[in-house]
Amino acid sequence: MLRLLRLLLLLLLLPPPGSPEPPGLAPLSPGAPPQAPDLLYADGLRAYAAGAWAPAVALLREALRSRAALGRARRDCGARCAAEPGTALPAAPGPDSGPGAAWASWEPLLLRAALRRAECLTQCGARRLGPGGAARLRVVSALRDAFRRREPYNYLQRAYYQLKKLDLAAAAAHTFFVANPTHLQMREDMAKYRRMTGVRPQSFRDLETPPHWAAYDTGLELLGRQEAGLALPWLEEALQESLAQMESCRADCEGPEEQQREEDEQEGTGSQGGLYEAIAVHWIRVLQCRQRCVGDTATRPGRSFPVPDFLPGQLKRLHEAYAQVGNLSQAVENVLSLLLFYPEDEAATKALDQYQAQLGEPRPGLGPREDIQSFVLRSLGEKRQLYYAMEHLGTSFKDPDPWTPAAVIPEALRDKLREDQEKRPWDHEPPQPKPLTHWKDVLLLEGVTLTQDARQLNGSERAVLDGLLTPAECGVLLQLAKDAAEAGARSGYRGRRSPHTPHERFEGLTVLKAAQLARAGAVGSQGAQLLLEVSERVRTLTQAYFSPDRPLHLSFTHLVCRSAVEGEQAQRMDLSHPVHADNCVLDPDTGECWREPPAYTYRDYSGLLYLNDDFQGGDLFFTEPNALRVTAQVRPRCGRLVAFSSGGENPHGVWAVTRGRRCALALWHTWAPEHREQEWTEAKELLQEPEEEEEEMSSRDPAPEPPSRRLQRVQDKAGKPSRVREEL
After folding, report:
1. What is the DSSP-derived secondary structure letter of residue 87?
2. What pLDDT does residue 104 have?
3. 370, 403, 422: which is the final residue of a domain?
4. To pair with 416 at 20 to 30 A between CA atoms, which of 124, 339, 649, 704?
5. Is residue 616 part of a domain?
6. What are phi and psi of 339, to 5 degrees?
7. What residue stretch is flagged as signal peptide (predicted)?
8. pLDDT confidence of residue 102
9. Which phi and psi angles does 191 have, rounded to 5°?
10. pLDDT at 724
């Protein structure tokens, strides 16, 4: 509900259609004070929707500039006002002062300093940002999320493309793609730009790369080439820019953000008391935000988790690099800084002893870096306040740092913190595949293992199991598909171009068609019989895994091969199979999946059993309901089964097959007995019938019967031709 309200709020910001100009906006000027980012962004989207590409570019760029200016102003004004006379917050009286005059005089000093700093911030904001200051440029959380995902660049790349500014279009596309690496449409757009003659490799640049990441990556690259001297300036810049990025983030924590009221609604943390309770709630929220800045700074664009120990890791590389170039004084300074985070680190302590021994006589002036010492002391002070509030006021706090000393944490909270640290996903290796021993006992399927479950596949009711087929069995089924294709009896699409892409050929074989071909002598009976056995094997396993208390029936079985068309892959931009769901019509715009025709609404579970991996592309992938963001991907291999529920919770597609031939057995299961696959029963009966009639006919006519005529006779005996069904 809250997400819907945010969306409605953003829509209300859009001007009414038909307005000739964005209302209330002065002409855009680089030197003018920034305007409201939300209004600029809304007007930019309106211009984009109207096809006014040049105004859309100007408005979207101004929205980005305004937001950046707001962040710089907050950071600069915060630093300036903290240094103004009379704005420094007074230190609290010591614990021995008692409840007397010292505390009585401290309170007015604190409030006076807070008022003076507020006055300074208001005046500074008005000078930098125009009348109203930062409050006038307040940005709601829905819009902040859009900027965080770099959505303006998604619109900019299309607008630049329409304006024939391909270099800028490629840069905007790359900038968006860096933060959204699983966005399918942008992936295709990037491939399109790379094939354009007017786009250079240098065009693919990140316009939003934080300076600390650019310097960090350059420094690591030089270290990897054993060029410590060249790497040091970049490593120093990375550290300084990392600290500056944290300061900018901390300044944003003090802004008049709409998010604070929304968080109150979500978490129920709004103040219910008087003045001091309200001050405490607001201050705790600011401190929590400041502590999160460490993880935000250490998280690369497009990634979900931060680089562990980001600052200590930089200090480790710095002291080692300085030692390599012989600058032992700087090496000592940086290793001492590292020991502020981990005082008992054996490797750092050993390195410090080594550096000091090489330096010879003690140098009393050497100590930790002042910027790191200030950072650690300030962070520990904030953590103490947050843990105090957690213990005495019932607030929550997830410490982002593994280096926090145990002495800072109240004893009553240490066990809880230890549990939270153990739950952090980036501290652990991915779970290893586990043998499916339980299902072995149930099904007597030796060698079957559960490779990935729903959690590892980032979804619900999904599983990857290996070992359902031996290599020999895969070979038999591949030969069956090949023989059927050569016999010219391709069911479904008759070997023509795929209905999903013109760059692949599609061949499908049903169980009944395979049985008919086997009776006609066009394919081996071993392959047709194995096709039946394997489909039942998959059904039994799928039922045991997903639906042990409710019988599943096969509703359709299809042996499918996709082959890349040679000479047509270089310019390819599409998928082998677009994103879809198996029992409902997927609407990516709303995330809804309508369980109605033309979808096969009776399908309940789906399975894909792969036969080979000697091809390029062709991986199966799952997406979010918007059909844009990939949540999991599976590489085919012989005997690998991907099984999942058929509804809108599992949208999936297939990447383009760009070389070779990809074969798999597609199966769908249903709880409804009336929709069970009748062809499967007919095929089984056909394969079990004796060959007496054929032997009798052969005795009457010594001339061999052409396979095509025999096939027609078998089809006539079966009573009807095999059904043509689309593989979905």
Report:
1. -
2. 67
3. 422
4. 339
5. yes
6. -70, -15
7. 1-20
8. 62
9. -65, -35
10. 36
8-39 pLDDT, tens per residue? 444 444 444 443 333 333 344 555 677 888 88
Counting the structural domains of the chain, the total is: 2
Positive or negative torsion for Cα 382, 387, 392, 393: positive
**Count of residues for the chain?**
728
Radius of gyration in angstroms for the set of CA atoms belonging to the chain, rounded to a whole number: 33
Residues 253 and 315 in one domain: yes
Helix (H) or strand (E) holding 632: strand 630-634
Q: Which pLDDT score, from 0 to 100, does residue 78 have?
A: 82
Amino acid making up residue 166:
L
Classify strands 592-594 and 620-623 as parallel, antiparallel or unpaired: unpaired
CA distance 625 to 653: 12
Q: At what angle do helices 707-718 and 678-688 cross, to 10 degrees?
A: 120
Name which of 510, 452, 491, 506 is nearest 643 in CA terms. 452
Is the model's pTM score more than 0.70?
A: no
For residue 434, being part of any structural domain is answered with: no
- What is the full DSSP assignment across 432-484? PPEE-HHHHHHH--TT-EEEE-TTTTTSSSEEEEE-SS-HHHHHHHHHHHHHH
User: Which two three-digit tokens encode residue 350?
Assistant: 């050993």
Examine the domain organization and report whether 417 and 457 are in the same domain: no
561 within domain boundaries: yes
Rounded to whole angstroms, the Cα distance separating 162 from 420 reads 50
Beta bridge pairs of residue 464: 452, 642
Residues 413 and 453 reside in one and the same domain: no
Scored b (16 or more CB within 10 A) or e, 398-429 reads ebbbebbeeeebeeeeeeebeeeeeeeeeeee
Q: What is the distance of C-alpha 364 from the center of its chain?
A: 50
Please state whether beta strands 620-623 and 652-654 pair in parallel, antiparallel, or not at all (unpaired): antiparallel
Which stretches of 490-590 are DSSP H helices? 511-520, 525-546
d(CA 287, CA 388): 12
On whether residue 529 sits in a domain, the answer given is yes
Residue spans of the chain under pLDDT 50:
1-28, 258-271, 424-444, 490-494, 692, 694-728
CA–CA dist 494, 696 (Å, integer): 32
- Whether 662 is a known active-site residue: answer yes
Please name which of 311, 325, 321 lies closest in space to residue 369, comparing C-alpha atoms: 311
Catalytic residue of the set 46, 67, 640, 662: 662
For residue 4, the model assigns a pLDDT of 43
**Burial call 172-198: b when 16+ CB within 10 Å, e when fewer:** bbbbbbbbbebbbebbebbebbeeeee
* Three-class secondary structure of residue 491 per DSSP: strand
Same domain, yes or no, for 412 and 286?
yes
Which residues, at least 6 apart from 704, have a Cβ–Cβ distance to it below 8 Å? none
The pLDDT tens digits of the residues spanning 492-538 come to 434 555 666 788 888 889 999 999 999 988 999 999 999 999 999 99
**Any idea what the CATH number is for the domain that residue 485 is in?**
2.60.120.620
**Terminal Cα-to-Cα distance of the chain (whole angstroms):** 33
The residue type found at 437 is: T
Domain region containing 358: 249-258+275-422
Phi, psi (degrees; rounded to nearest 5) at 589: -65, -40
Structure token pair of residue 564:
């890349």
pLDDT value for 416: 66
